[in-house]
Specification:
single chain, about 30 residues, mainly alpha, about 45% helix
Length: about 30
């Protein structure tokens, strides 16, 4: 927690990775 990612980021993220950054809300566990 610290920074908020807008819908734009989420949309691009899903388009690139193909998944929704839901875990990021609690903590970046699958990030790297």
């Amino acid at each position: 927690s610290g920074y908020r990612h807008p819908s734009n980021f989420a949309a691009a993220f899903r388009k690139r990775f193909g998944l929704v950054p839901s875990r990021w809300r609690t903590g970046p566990s699958k990030v790297g």
